[in-house]
Write a structure and sequence with these properties.
372 residues, five-stranded antiparallel beta sheet, 18 strands, alpha+beta, six-stranded mixed beta sheet, Rossmann fold, 2 domains
Length: 372
């Protein structure tokens, strides 16, 4: 498990360290660096997977993330032409220095110090899932990849292989029975996924029709009401949120112990109850051996996490909250990081301005009598 991330001269961060936990929630204003924290991990992973991290350096454009050239990622307040990442993991510690070359998209590796066990961590193995904010929505058909899905057990960064993943592993029991939904027919990945998706749209049933000769898969849904089951509907003819949320649920349910799951905006296209229940699933996964680092703007997802703590499903010590806001003009940095704590009742010790408080501000304005 990653315990700490340190960024030096990377994008908006001249020098910043982040404590991590089984559940690490990144929130805050747009453009303040939340995605940059996740991108630092993705850069290290994609460079390692391409075989260049060890000797050549950092690959800025790859399968996981595309950031341009060195001039796009060097902090504008940098005092030296070095970008550095440091990861403290339960298996070891890695410190990487990379030399700045303005127009290059591969940053030459400088003097670095990396524990040999570091590369056994989930960040550098197949015990990893990353789902970006712009995921694959409803389509007439979906991609298939035997290498990515069957061999690497990946869903794709956009969740584009979710249908193929479900067709291959849907009958396999989920690795952690503690994530089991009470209404699921069995522990199989398909039944568990259907039960959790039913929190988004009641009675959801999933159907995948694969065409291996064309490397495409069709995805459709039916809906059970009592003893009645509807006809199958193409994914393009049902709620957008079902298909958008499917890969997130699959990633969490299929993650084996000591996995790392990184998610951007899991709440997208979900109604409030669905967001809250997704927060609960994230929490249950994280307290059962899966580290989840995610970025969210949803107070409902946060409240799902707080409820999981309140119901003693999650230890508050296993939660790290980081709020990204604008620093004061005289602080020499664009971004200020505030890290509230959560207690055993699910209460949060500080609520900086902008930290999931818009509802309270709007309600206060509505109950205040109008002048005149």
């Amino acid at each position: 498990m990653i315990d700490r991330i340190r960024l030096h001269n990377f994008k908006c961060f001249q020098e910043q360290s982040f404590a991590c936990a089984p559940i690490t929630l990144l929130s805050g204003l747009n453009g303040m660096g939340k995605s940059s924290v996740i991108q630092s991990l993705l850069l290290l992973r994609q460079s390692y997977m391409q075989g260049i991290l060890d000797k050549e350096g950092l690959l800025l454009n790859g399968d996981l993330v595309r950031l341009g050239t060195a001039k796009d990622v060097l902090c504008e307040n940098a005092q030296q032409d070095i970008i550095a990442f440091e990861i403290e993991d339960s298996l070891g510690k890695g410190h990487w220095n990379f030399k700045y070359d303005r127009d290059s998209d591969i940053l030459e590796r400088g003097e670095s110090e990396v524990s040999s066990r570091m590369f056994q961590s989930s960040l550098f193995t197949n015990k990893f899932h990353y789902l970006q904010a712009e995921r694959t929505g409803p389509r007439p058909f979906f991609e298939m990849s035997d290498f990515i899905v069957r061999q690497q057990k990946q869903l794709g960064t956009r969740g584009e292989f979710a249908a193929h993943f479900l067709s291959l592993f849907g009958s396999v029991d989920i690795p952690n029975s503690k994530l089991s939904h009470q209404n699921a027919v069995s522990l199989s990945l398909r039944h568990q996924t259907e039960a959790w998706l039913s929190e988004v749209s009641p009675g959801t049933r999933i159907h995948v029709d694969s065409n291996a000769s064309m490397d495409i898969a069709g995805l459709s849904y039916s809906f059970e009401t009592g003893r009645q089951v509807s006809n199958k509907f193409r994914s393009t003819n049902v709620g957008f949120g079902l298909t958008y949320t499917l890969p997130i649920i699959l990633a969490l349910l299929s993650a084996v112990p000591n996995s790392l799951v990184a998610i951007e905006n899991p709440e997208a296209h979900l109604h409030p109850r669905g967001q809250s229940r997704l927060g609960e699933l994230i929490s249950r996964a994280a307290c059962n051996g899966v580290q989840v680092i995610f970025e969210t703007h949803s107070d409902h997802v946060l409240n799902g996490l707080r409820l999981a703590v309140h119901h003693e499903q999650v230890n508050p010590a296993d939660v790290a909250l980081h709020f990204f806001c604008a620093a004061a003009a005289d602080e020499g940095s664009r971004t200020l990081i505030v890290s509230p704590s959560i207690d055993s009742d699910g209460r949060i010790d500080q609520w900086p301005d902008g930290f999931f408080d818009e509802w309270d501000k709007s309600l206060e304005a509505l109950i205040t009598p109008r002048k005149g």
